[in-house]
Design a protein that fits this description.
two-stranded antiparallel sheet, alpha+beta, about 375 residues
């Protein structure tokens, strides 16, 4: 997701003075989110944090059911599929998306990766250049070079694309054989300390498709607020304003939400990490019905945090990734597209093929 209740941690030279009370609240919130994933009961502090959890009452479903409804496997692409909604990107889809390119202008949709960027919990981004230079001189031409050493959660910091092995559902509490992910694959099936055995990001196909920007800032006439839910009515209002018919969306398209929250990026990281506006369950279901391949936003989780239902933690992540194989692209820079009223474009993202990875960094672009 970025994940299970994100906050800010600066691992390197720059640091933020976060008061002890807020640390306690966000630590409790993260604990509540982990409780959601593993079916654990929340501590009182977690329940008071305002960021929801899925408690033990939901961790023991009735026969044939799960905490998130009926069993969602096998997927539409078969019981062994690991590519999810990237399967929509066919040669025909690529040729159709190319038609959107008229001017050749490229927009950067990603952020710069640097130690000062907002990061969830104790995640880090630490880059070092060993030596000065790292190597050489060699040969009569005295060649020298620099290498970098990077320590980070490579697929879960900065602009990140969540893979299908990132989020699951603890169907029966701490039973690893019933902690299920996309296509019903279990922790027992896929978990490995050295990379996921299945559902690694390397299985995701390159994404080259039509992108649609939903400009919530324009609809609201302001930046959205923390905990403000994007509704189906909001989406429909944006589409009307942008003169885009809702039925114009085709299977395999990607949809992006500009909320204005990205204006806080590296300017007020503490506020950025407290919560966010985003997609609610109803709007998420709207996206699922449109059969999109990916949903992105200028926020760290794409969905609304805290959830309006305080008993739920990141339910849209489960609906997208776990149940439908729809990818999530977080921490995007969508303001330039919105400023130029670019609502439709060719979206290109090729996840780095990190074997067993839970997600991918990258340099997504929009071409018009």
């Amino acid at each position: 997701m970025s994940d299970q209740n994100k906050t800010v941690y600066d691992a390197d030279e720059q640091s933020h003075d976060i008061d002890a009370g807020r640390r306690a609240v966000m630590t409790a919130a993260a604990g509540g989110a982990l409780g959601a994933l593993f079916g654990l009961a929340p501590a009182p502090a977690q329940a008071a944090s305002g960021i929801g959890f899925v408690g033990t009452a939901q961790a023991q479903p009735a026969a044939g059911a799960t905490p998130v409804g009926a069993a969602w496997w096998p997927s539409r692409w078969g019981a062994d599929d690991q590519a999810g909604a990237s399967n929509w990107i066919t040669p025909e889809k690529v040729l159709d998306a190319i038609k959107l390119v008229r001017t050749g202008k490229i927009y950067e949709m990603g952020r710069i990766y640097e130690s000062s960027m907002p990061k969830f919990g104790e995640r880090a981004f630490t880059l070092r250049i060993p030596g000065g230079p790292t190597g050489g001189p060699l040969g009569n031409n005295r060649v020298i070079w620099h290498d970098e050493f990077l320590a980070t959660e490579i697929g879960q910091v900065g602009t990140q694309m969540d893979g299908l092995g990132h989020i699951g559902v603890a169907v029966k509490g701490e039973d690893r054989a019933e902690m299920r992910f996309y296509n019903g694959m279990t922790v027992a099936d896929i978990s490995n300390a050295y990379g996921l055995k299945k559902l690694g990001i390397e299985h995701v196909k390159p994404i080259f498709t039509r992108g649609l920007l939903i400009d919530m800032v324009a609809v609201k006439g302001r930046n959205m607020n923390i905990g403000e839910e994007i509704t189906v009515a909001d989406i429909e209002a944006a589409l009307r304003r942008q003169n885009v018919a809702a039925d114009a969306l085709k299977p395999g398209d990607a949809i992006f939400f500009n909320t204005g929250w990205g204006s806080l990026w590296n300017k007020d990281n503490v506020e950025f990490g407290k919560g966010e506006p985003g997609v609610g369950l109803a709007a998420g279901q709207w996206c699922i019905e449109k059969q999109v391949c990916l949903v992105g936003a200028d926020t760290w989780a794409v969905e609304v945090v805290p959830n309006p239902n305080s008993n739920l933690a990141f339910p849209v992540h489960q609906e997208f990734l776990t149940k439908n194989g729809i990818f999530i692209h977080e921490n995007l820079d969508l303001a330039p597209l919105a400023a130029d009223s670019v609502w439709q474009f060719l979206y290109v993202m090729t996840p780095i093929r990190i074997k067993g990875g839970t997600g991918s960094p990258g340099r997504p672009i929009a071409i018009v």
